[in-house]
Amino acid sequence: MRATLRASDRPLAEEFDLALVDLDGVAYRGHLPIEHAAESLGAARAAGMRLVFVTNNASREPEDVAGQLTGLDIPASPEEVMTAAQACAALLRTRLEPGARVLVVGGRGLVTAVEAQGFEVVTSADDRPDAVAQGYAPEVAWPQLAEAAYAVEAGAWHVASNLDLSLPTARGFAPGNGALVGAVVAATGVTPDSAGKPSPTMYRLAVERVGARRPLVVGDRLDTDLAGARAGSYPGLHVLTGVSSARDAVLAEPGLRPDFVGADLRALHEVHPVPVEGPDGWWECRGRAARVVDGTLELDREGQHGIDVVRAACAAAWAAVDEGTALDPDRVPELSA
């Protein structure tokens, strides 16, 4: 079955009973609010949709995340936060028994999650750990990376909270956990297992926690949030307030494609029409249209702005590529909602 956009005749907040909401780029940006996020999430709760905030950040405690959200007028409890640290510790439990030694390279959030699973936290390879749990924290430096490498070389199981190469901050993009994990991989040649997105582990844990039957993933990154949704067979909404742009969505390979696309979190309260193929190869969505001709994405005369032209462009590009047409990225213009 092809990965393409889905239709929803009802607002998504009514169609789905749980939103698995990413943080950076969706609910906030660094320490700053994102326009329309607070009121949109509040309205989703009022409509009966439950929220769990799912983040690849493993350095912070759920209480800290909930506190930041609440301070941005998005009331949240620690039970509504699922971190990569919690997923990493849950992954460790699939092979290790309580009492096993785990060398933690990361912040307090990862230490707490590992201890909560009954493991003994150690800080040196000389303690002969059974596993290395590695997550991002600003204080991680060469000495901790070296201990991780020594332990992995000695046979410890290497588990990363996530493999994100970059980390969005208020000043721009900084090296993420994947970049730090890469240093250990370069030293050892051992590829780690990962618990964070794009693995669907966190989504599954969050769904099980609340007993949801119709979950929706909401994210800004195609390579993590939406890839994890595809991997776990969860419907995904791509909002254009973070890392991945509308043009990125148009060029997305099947495993990264969203089911829905919206300008921001107001998309939770909108119906989502599905584009339809019309004459001469034009894909149309509520009066906007796009098509692919000789590897070039063509848009209607109204230009590059509007969420419906983004939807039409996604449908046209994906259909063309899936049918074997080579789409030239240099001939795909920037789009905006």
TrEMBL record:
Quick check: keyword Metal-binding in the entry? no
Q: Which Pfam families match?
A: GNAT_like, Hydrolase_6, Hydrolase_like
What does UniProt give as GO cellular component?
Answer: cytoplasm
Keyword Hydrolase on entry: yes
Give the GCN5-related N-acetyltransferase-like domain ranges: 285-329
Q: Which GO terms describe its molecular function?
A: phosphatase activity
Which Gene3D superfamilies does the record match to this protein? HAD superfamily/HAD-like
Q: Which keywords does the record carry?
A: Hydrolase
- PANTHER family from the xrefs? 4-NITROPHENYLPHOSPHATASE-RELATED, D-GLYCEROL 3-PHOSPHATE PHOSPHATASE
The protein's name in its UniProt record? HAD-superfamily hydrolase, subfamily IIA
From the broadest rank down, the organism's phylogenetic lineage runs: Bacteria, Bacillati, Actinomycetota, Actinomycetes, Micrococcales
